[in-house]
Amino acid sequence: MRREKTTQLTRKGWKVGTVREFLALSAEEAAYVELRLRLANSLRSRRQRMKLSQAGLAARIGSSQSRVAKMEADDPSVSIDLLVRSLFALGATSRDLARAISHSALPKAS
Amino acid sequence: MRREKTTQLTRKGWKVGTVREFLALSAEEAAYVELRLRLANSLRSRRQRMKLSQAGLAARIGSSQSRVAKMEADDPSVSIDLLVRSLFALGATSRDLARAISHSALPKAS
DNA sequence: TGGCGCCATGTCAGATCTGACATAGCATGG
DNA sequence: CCATGCTATGTCAGATCTGACATGGCGCCA
Predict the structure, then answer these.
(1) How many CB pairs under 8 A join A and B?
(2) Shortest Cα distance from A30 to chain B (angstroms)?
(3) Which domains, ranges and CATH numbers included, belong to chain A?
(4) Which candidate, B47, B53, B36, places its Cα nearest to that of B86?
(5) pLDDT digits (tens, 9 = 90+) for A6-44
(6) Is the dihedral of CA B44, B50, B53, B59 positive or negative?
(7) How far is C-alpha B57 from the geometric centre of its chain's CA atoms?
(8) What is the Cα–Cα distance from B84 to B77, expressed in whole angstroms?
(9) Long-range contacts for A58-63 (Cβ within 8 Å, ≥24 apart)?
(10) Using the 8-state DSSP alphabet, how is residue A107 labeled?
(11) Chain A nearest C-alpha distance from B101 (Å)
């Protein structure tokens, strides 16, 4: 939360947050980053299942290959809005989203 | 999708989209607006359950009363990002989100 | 009537996000 | 070796979103 504070200094990515809070994420921050990650993963797997290239997906949603790459990489410069819209554009339903969000579809960390 | 096109002209809200497409939303657009609506409703009811005023919630999330009002009104100027972060700030879990999203918690329209 | 708490709506400067472009890495097939 | 296709990463102008502020409405109690 309150990204602005550190923003002028870091002007690129999570950096500050991730490093400092590596072991001290508040519950809500953790939920937020995890949500993003799940959407990102979901997007990639859905795209691959459909045998689309990033450029192909980009064309569909009126964006560019590079932005799609960033979405899938969970780059801090992409919003949840964009992720969600892209998922819908690939035919995901609300239910699909809900599944992606609550189910831990995360790659096992350990 | 592709909001920019009409944006310079309308410079305020859904307007163009809503009126013109009143009966012709694509599936993805429908899913998107419905998702927003559900998050907005979810936020309001969660806040009320916690007996917080909009100003109170605003303070918690480092925002302002007016923005909270806009969130709950599903104003086009608020992003899903903000809605989601606010929900998390009120203690919602990923699972809560998923429920809000897939369950039709919409006020019955008729 | 006035004061008070709460919510809605408009506006705006400044912060953030976005598409586009450039460029590089890395396989696979020639 | 060189193409070709796909993905990753950086940059930037322009679009969008955000917090703050101002103001108005509504209900309620004195």
Answers:
(1) 78
(2) 10
(3) 26-102 (1.10.260.40)
(4) B47
(5) 555 455 566 555 444 455 578 888 999 999 999 999 999
(6) negative
(7) 15
(8) 15
(9) A60/A89, A60/A90, A61/A85, A61/A86, A61/A89, A61/B1, A62/B1, A62/B2
(10) P
(11) 6
Q: How many CB atoms lie within 10 A of CB B57?
A: 23
User: CB distance A28–B84 less than 8 Å?
Assistant: no
Exposure of B40 in the CB half-sphere (CA atoms within 13 A): 21
Rounded to the nearest angstrom, the gap between the alpha carbon of residue B107 and the centroid of all alpha carbons in its chain is 14
- pLDDT digits (tens), chain B, 110 positions: 444 445 554 555 665 554 444 555 788 889 999 999 999 999 999 999 999 999 999 999 999 999 999 999 999 999 999 999 999 999 999 999 999 998 765 554 44
Longest dimension (CA), chain B: 41
**Would you call A108 helix, strand, or coil by DSSP?**
coil
Cα B33 to Cα B36: distance, rounded to the nearest angstrom: 5
- SS3 of B16, please? helix
| Nucleotide with smallest C1' distance to residue B4 CA | D15
Task: Give the closest residue to B96 by CA, choosing from B58, B45, B55.
Answer: B45
Quote the percentage of chain A above a pLDDT of 70.
Answer: 72
The C-alpha atoms of residue A68 and residue A60 are separated, in whole angstroms, by: 11
Residues of chain A with C-beta less than 8 angstroms from the C-beta of B79: 79-81
How long is the CA A69 to C1' C30 vector, in angstroms?
29
CA distance A36 to A80: 7
